[in-house]
Amino acid sequence: MPPKAEAKPKCKISASRKLSLKILLLTRATEELEAENAARDEEKVRHLSAKLPPLQFSGLTMEELQKMCKQLHAKIDVTDEERYECEAKVFKNNKDIHELKLKVQDLGGKFKKPALRKVRVSADEMMRALLGSKHKGSMDLRANLKSVKKEDIKQEKELTMEVGDWRKNVEAMSGMEGRKKMFDAAGGGQ
Questions:
Q1: Which helix (H) or strand (E) segment is 91 a member of?
Q2: What is the pLDDT of residues 124-161, one digit of tens each?
Q3: Do the Cβ atoms of 173 and 182 come closer than 8 Å?
Q4: Angle at Cα 137 formed by Cα 139 and Cα 148, nearest 5°?
Q5: Are 60 and 68 in contact, with CB atoms under 8 Å apart?
């Protein structure tokens, strides 16, 4: 006999205590998040001050200002290149992560095709579902059939009776005489 699964012990913490702990955890998390954001902002300011010292415009001639502008443009170009390279790396890494996730899902085999249910749907309901409001007429297939009169059936039977035995017809038309008869019958001999 397999051993019985052990029952989980009941939690001895009251609901109000759980709520107060949850509130404490959330307040602590928000404080840490605010501290992290402040540290990130300070890091950004420190990095920018190290990369770009404060500019002194007073007392510079026109040539010195133009030279400073060219230097700033060169630094902007370098920064744009670095940003582009970082974005390309991020895009490539995200693509790789997505492909790896798909591989893991394929290897895991967790996806099972659901069993299809039999559903009774009439042709009218099917057409309404597919075409929406465009479908107006009913799918009465018998109504769309061509009506056949009894006289037409009698005429077809008479035509088949007139033809007679096909062997006699073939023998009569064989050879040059038969071709001449066919030519004369078509009106080519006049």
A1: helix 62-108
A2: 777 777 777 666 666 566 666 766 666 666 666 666 65
A3: yes
A4: 60
A5: yes
